[in-house]
Design brief:
The protein folds into five domains: 120 residues, Rossmann fold (3-Layer(aba) Sandwich), CATH 3.40.50; 64 residues, no CATH class; 122 residues, CobE/GbiG C-terminal domain (Nucleotidyltransferase, domain 5, 2-Layer Sandwich); 112 residues, Tetrapyrrole methylase, N-terminal domain (Cobalt-precorrin-4 Transmethylase, domain 1); 128 residues, Methyltransferase, Cobalt-precorrin-4 Transmethylase, Domain 2, CATH 3.30.950.10. The protein contains 19 helices and 28 strands. The strands form six sheets. The chain has a six-stranded mixed β-sheet with strand order 3-2-1-4-5-6, sandwiched between helices. The chain has a five-stranded mixed β-sheet with strand order 13-12-11-15-14, with helices on both faces. The longest helix is centred in the last third of the chain and has 13 residues. Bound molecules: S-adenosyl-L-homocysteine. The site of S-adenosyl-L-homocysteine (SAH) has 23 residues, from β24 and β26.
Length: 587
């Protein structure tokens, strides 16, 4: 998934309110806090220098709520490449000053201004050009790209020294700025999708106005050799700059075809889809039966420039009068992430899952779990369900993703262990809705209850083990019985999930009776309730004493193998472990 939008770094708890304001203004930013001094942060770190240097090297924008000197001294050894440095902003502890420090070519002034606006102060912009002209020529707004090979430094120096500038083309952000614009300016800023060369006298911006429409025109089972070189040649022939290509556009009917995404990826631009209905309208208005032409025109409401057929794939180029807004044009490929949030404790949620949650448009899950992770969801759209409605939950998540959203389906523990990932694939397998074919599905693992329980008490799963759910809602009891016999006979340590519920109390007793046909009365048992949650208890017991009264719906029970042992330390700690080696006969 994509990179973190920014790391907002705090060194003590007093600065968290300022940090929260910044985070709410910078979508996708995460709170980094010094361990021991800060609480309730997204990422807790203990080594300031190492953490900051890692963030900087990985290109993550950094907002340090601390003195500028701290940031400068920490990052100084890494300041070799101006082109690549991410934005670094220092913010005063009380939010009264916002200072862009590094990353001038990567939007630090824009970030600083965004933060300053959220804090109700003025950013301390020190870049001469930006102050004088009220815009950053180095960081044009979305929809415009500075042409490669521009000598921006020389151009700005000339303007600061008194040169005037003529605008060729249309760009409100330039015409409304404080640039010294005149009809007969000595310098030129040109806005064009054409391939032109920048010089010291001429600065070129390419607007994102070009749409490339692609389609297989309903052909199935074709070779789909990618027409990348062909599309590039079309741009050359039309004298258009690839920097002006806003995206690749196609029909949802082609969404499942990997060739479409591969074309967009090879051109390094996003892909957007139009529904059959949206396309039909444009196609009939323009008298075309070709969905590539329809897609290019639907994206631009502009003029068709070129249309070519490359074996199975039809390609069209159209130009819009203004930059294409990808947020409102077509829909992105839908994504569904099925994530595991661990058994309950916030620290056991993986950074990947936090990252995915921060990017979600929709979060779907059992209401209790969504409440657990509320701090990570913020004000995203939530779809809460009852614990039992698993297939409805899966279907909802798939449908939301098919609409082009980033749907995140939340499971406790690991999503692939007695949880929602399997429910999604079952639904996909049985219902086979065509619109689900285009969804990108990703499963993010989590810590399962048995792992968390085992970790709390030592290493009872240290050797071969298996997991058995005692719930006979989705499988008959006869199957469960058979598996307990087999696991007991094979001497596995066994993690029992769903040991009891309000309706089901006899199963655990039955399981115990079966196990006792193979194992001793004093076999070690771990009863782990509410692990990582309020009211956690992890108790050591024996098979003899095991009773349904020990368990509830948030309990996992680990029954040791014949080798599982307890070890008592002199300091009073008792641990359970299953040795990795079978050195001798049963102990
Ligand atoms: N996907 C989950 C399991 C869901 S099935 C996972 O990987 O952990 C639900 C069962 O998981 C519960 O009946 C219980 O047996 C176990 N469980 C879930 N959370 C638990 C917790 N915090 N403590 C103990 N057991 C838990």
């Amino acid at each position: 998934m994509t990179k973190l939008a920014a790391a907002v770094v705090v060194l003590n708890n007093n600065t968290i309110p300022v940090a929260q304001k910044i985070i709410s203004a910078v979508a996708g930013a995460q709170l980094y806090g010094l361990a021991g001094r800060t609480f309730g942060v997204d990422v807790s770190f203990s080594q300031f220098q190492v953490t900051l240097q890692e963030l900087f090297t990985s290109g993550t924008p950094i907002v340090g709520i601390c003195a500028t000197g701290i940031l400068i001294r920490t990052l100084a050894p890494l300041l070799a490449n101006k082109q690549q440095e991410p934005p670094v902003v220092a913010v005063a502890e009380d939010g009264s000053a916002v200072v862009p420090l590094l990353g001038g070519l990567n939007g630090v002034n824009n970030l600083a201004q965004q933060i300053a606006a959220a804090l109700g102060v003025k950013a301390a912009i020190t870049t001469a050009g930006d102050i004088r002209f009220g815009i950053s020529l180095a960081n044009p707004p979305d929809g415009y790209r500075l042409s490669e090979g521009s000598d921006l430094k020389a151009f700005i120096s000339d303007l600061l020294a008194g040169s005037t500038v003529r605008l060729e083309g249309h760009a409100p952000w330039l015409s409304n700025s404080s640039l010294p614009l005149t009809e007969d300016g000595q310098r030129v800023i040109q806005i064009t999708e054409k391939q032109v060369i920048s010089t010291q006298e001429r600065l070129v911006y390419h607007p994102a106005t070009i749409a490339i429409g692609v389609s297989t025109c309903g052909r199935k089972n074709c070779s789909h050799s990618l027409p990348i070189a062909g599309i590039q040649q079309m741009l050359v022939d039309a004298q258009l700059s690839p920097a002006s290509v806003a995206g690749v556009f196609t029909s949802t009917a082609d969404a499942a075809n990997p060739a479409m995404t591969a074309i967009a990826d090879s051109l390094g631009v996003p892909i957007r889809f139009f529904t059959a209905k949206e396309l039909q309208k444009v196609m009939s208005q323009n008298n075309t039966a070709d969905a590539a032409v329809g897609s290019a025109l639907a994206a631009t409401t502009g003029r068709l420039v070129m249309h070519r057929q490359f074996s199975d794939i039809s390609c069209a180029i159209a130009i819009a009068p203004v930059p294409i807004n990808l947020h409102t044009t077509g829909r992105p490929r839908g994504r569904l992430a099925i994530v595991g949030i661990g058994p309950g404790k916030k620290d056991w949620i993986s950074p990947e899952v936090r990252d995915i949650l921060s990017q979600a448009t929709d979060v779907i899950g059992y209401s209790t779990y969504l409440d657990f992770i509320r701090p990570f969801i913020g004000n995203k759209k939530q779809h809460k369900f009852d614990n039992r409605e698993e297939i409805t939950r899966a279907r909802t998540a798939l449908d939301l993703a098919a609409e082009g959203r980033l749907a995140v389906l939340v499971s406790s523990g690991d999503p692939g262990i007695y949880a929602m990932a399997a429910a999604v694939f079952e639904t996909l397998d049985q219902e086979r809705k065509p619109e689900w074919e285009s969804i990108e599905i990703y499963v993010a693992p989590g810590i399962s209850a048995m792992q968390a329980a085992a970790a709390k008490i030592g290493a009872p799963l240290g050797h071969d083990f298996c997991a058995i759910s005692l719930s006979d809602i989705l499988k008959p009891w006869s199957v469960i019985e058979k598996r307990i016999h087999a696991a007991a006979e094979a001497d596995f340590a066994i993690a029992f999930y769903n040991p009891v519920s309000k309706q089901r109390t006899w199963q655990l007793q039955q399981a115990r009776n079966i196990l006792l046909q193979y194992r001793r009365l004093d076999t070690t048992v771990v009863i782990a309730r509410h692990v990582g949650r309020e009211g956690e208890s992890v108790k050591i017991s024996t098979l003899e004493q095991l009773s349904p009264l020990d368990a509830d719906m948030q309990t996992v029970i680990i029954v040791g193998s014949s080798h599982t042992r307890t070890v008592q330390q002199d300091n009073g700690n008792t641990w359970v472990y299953t040795p990795r080696r079978y050195i001798q006969q049963q102990l």
